[in-house]
């Protein structure tokens, strides 16, 4: 399970789908491993960028992770299901005048940024930062940034605008490749449980929109 923006929505979709979740998951806790013994499940709480790593190396059979992480990390895992939660986008943003001064792009997603600008034939220097990406254009470190955008509020508050959308992002259910073969029945049951819930929720949303 990822900490941060995906966590609450992921927890809600698991509970609504009937997956037993430990009581501690719904509370403020510093525990990193929580168990639901009756369902023979253990939940590991990790930074979003680390979830796919734990799954790839088999210490977790399944994980919930943003598509942005999968695109950036290129981990060797199975992507099983689009959970349709935490929608956002990976975008290029910068100051409104759009002037290119130093050709630098600041980002937490160097792989995504490099592939995108290569695909449009633009040569840039990608500078990796770990936080406060919006600061880079304001102090002249970079002309533009590549970052996750949800509401755009942080960009607006810092005088930046969204220039281009690279890709849209939602959260995905992923599986370790070996676990998927060895524990197929259990994993497929878990998959079906979530898939059916997502389909029912989608039908309810369509019904409400048509009223």
UniProtKB/TrEMBL annotation:
<dbReference type="GO" id="GO:0005737">
    <property type="term" value="C:cytoplasm"/>
</dbReference>
<keyword id="KW-0328">Glycosyltransferase</keyword>
<keyword id="KW-0963">Cytoplasm</keyword>
<dbReference type="Pfam" id="PF01634">
    <property type="entry name" value="HisG"/>
</dbReference>
<comment type="pathway">
    <text>Amino-acid biosynthesis; L-histidine biosynthesis; L-histidine from 5-phospho-alpha-D-ribose 1-diphosphate: step 1/9.</text>
</comment>
<keyword id="KW-0808">Transferase</keyword>
<keyword id="KW-0067">ATP-binding</keyword>
<dbReference type="InterPro" id="IPR013820">
    <property type="entry name" value="ATP_PRibTrfase_cat"/>
</dbReference>
<keyword id="KW-0547">Nucleotide-binding</keyword>
<feature type="domain" description="ATP phosphoribosyltransferase catalytic">
    <location>
        <begin position="47"/>
        <end position="195"/>
    </location>
</feature>
<dbReference type="InterPro" id="IPR024893">
    <property type="entry name" value="ATP_PRibTrfase_HisG_short"/>
</dbReference>
<dbReference type="InterPro" id="IPR018198">
    <property type="entry name" value="ATP_PRibTrfase_CS"/>
</dbReference>
<protein>
    <recommendedName>
        <fullName>ATP phosphoribosyltransferase</fullName>
        <ecNumber>2.4.2.17</ecNumber>
    </recommendedName>
</protein>
<comment type="function">
    <text>Catalyzes the condensation of ATP and 5-phosphoribose 1-diphosphate to form N'-(5'-phosphoribosyl)-ATP (PR-ATP). Has a crucial role in the pathway because the rate of histidine biosynthesis seems to be controlled primarily by regulation of HisG enzymatic activity.</text>
</comment>
<comment type="subunit">
    <text>Heteromultimer composed of HisG and HisZ subunits.</text>
</comment>
<keyword id="KW-0028">Amino-acid biosynthesis</keyword>
<keyword id="KW-0368">Histidine biosynthesis</keyword>
<comment type="similarity">
    <text>Belongs to the ATP phosphoribosyltransferase family. Short subfamily.</text>
</comment>
<dbReference type="GO" id="GO:0000105">
    <property type="term" value="P:L-histidine biosynthetic process"/>
</dbReference>
<dbReference type="InterPro" id="IPR001348">
    <property type="entry name" value="ATP_PRibTrfase_HisG"/>
</dbReference>
<dbReference type="GO" id="GO:0005524">
    <property type="term" value="F:ATP binding"/>
</dbReference>
<dbReference type="GO" id="GO:0003879">
    <property type="term" value="F:ATP phosphoribosyltransferase activity"/>
</dbReference>
């Amino acid at each position: 399970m990822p900490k941060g923006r995906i966590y609450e929505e992921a927890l809600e979709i698991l509970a609504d789908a009937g997956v037993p979740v430990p009581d501690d998951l719904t509370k403020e806790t510093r525990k990193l491993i929580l168990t639901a013994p009756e369902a023979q499940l253990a939940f590991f709480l990790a930074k979003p960028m680390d979830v796919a790593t734990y799954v790839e190396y088999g210490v977790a059979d399944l994980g919930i992770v943003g598509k942005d992480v999968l695109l950036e990390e290129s981990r060797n895992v199975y992507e099983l299901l689009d959970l349709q939660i935490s929608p956002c986008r990976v975008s290029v943003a910068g100051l409104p005048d759009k002037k290119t001064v130093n050709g630098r792009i600041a980002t937490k997603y160097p792989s995504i940024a490099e592939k995108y600008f290569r695909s449009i034939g633009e040569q840039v220097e990608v500078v990796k930062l770990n936080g406060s990406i919006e600061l880079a254009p304001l102090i002249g470190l970079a002309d533009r940034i590549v970052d996750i955008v949800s509401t755009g509020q942080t960009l607006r508050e810092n005088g930046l605008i969204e220039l281009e959308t690279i890709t849209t992002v939602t959260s995905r259910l992923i599986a370790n490749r070996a676990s998927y073969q060895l524990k197929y029945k259990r994993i497929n049951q878990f998959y079906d449980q979530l898939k059916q819930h997502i389909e029912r929720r989608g039908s309810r949303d369509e019904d409400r929109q048509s009223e």
